[in-house]
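Support reply, case 0932

Customer input (verbatim):
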Amino acid sequence: MVPLVERTIYVTDRFYDVVALSKDRAFAIGYGGKLIETSDGGMNWTVLQSGVDQALYSIYFSGEKGWIAGQDGLILHSGDGGKTWAKQVSNAEFTELDGSKKTAYLFAITGVDDQHLWAVGDRSTLVSSRDGGATWEYQKVKVAEEAGVAEELAAADPIFYDLRFVDQNRGWIVGEFGKIFYTADGGKSWVEQNKSLLEGTGYFDPLDLPSLFGMFMHDDQQLAAVGLEGHVARTTNGGARWAYDATDVGEIKMQDPLFDLEEFPDGSAWAVGAAGETFRREGAGVPWKRASIGQDVLTWMRAIDFSDQQNGWMVGGFGLIFRTTDGGKTWLPSQG
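Our regenerated output:
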């Protein structure tokens, strides 16, 4: 009797992030410490040993060195192209009002090289490293001092969902309550940049701004972030002003969040979100529209990443992994 082929991807898998290192090579991470790699464009996937059973939320590579951030302050590091992974001490600990110690979940990790790294998570947590993760420093990012007392109390310790750095000094964080923070000194101090999102949008209270879950950075002037109700916030001047992109979603209004986006130099872009939502922008200044990937998706899609404008991946719930090799004209599921 021929034994059944052992599967590497199951309908019970939940994937939270994907990184495309080349046209054919990618890593996907998810629930329960799940970590898989393909080197042949998704025809085959290999399960790698993460050594943990916590959720893995975000993955970053600089050359052949990689880092993963996850549940309970988890940071994993690989120095051999992802073959083996080991824990690093994130120091993502905070003190509750009652004096008890808790460890923050880390939802995103990024860097500018293999030495300078940052990760963010709940309770306004930021941890950073200047030595490739050998040591991590914790800090709590505070709201702007000029904020009103009521606003400051209500928005205390917002959750941070994503971040990007353009160099060792300049970076952005996005998160709950539509927060957008900017640093020019490597994360030592931060200022808020989201107040311009109140202009002409129908939002009057900063606490009503839609939470932002994912970011994309072109350069030090052009960034975009996606969030609740399909909102896409954008700046073209380094954050001096942010505004929402136009959307054309038809009669069925967007109720669910977008989680992640990928943009290209010609202004075209993709975004993915809850309830199987996939959005497409054909070019700069063109409204976002719902896009079809050729089949119904009955779960959330959490992350999207392209190695170049033709070759990309999206991952989500039910163990779903889709790949395109033609810039999104067609998306094919990867079976594993």
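We compared this against your earlier run and they match. Two observations from our side: Helices lie at 149-154. The mean pLDDT is 92. Please reopen the case if you see a mismatch on your end.
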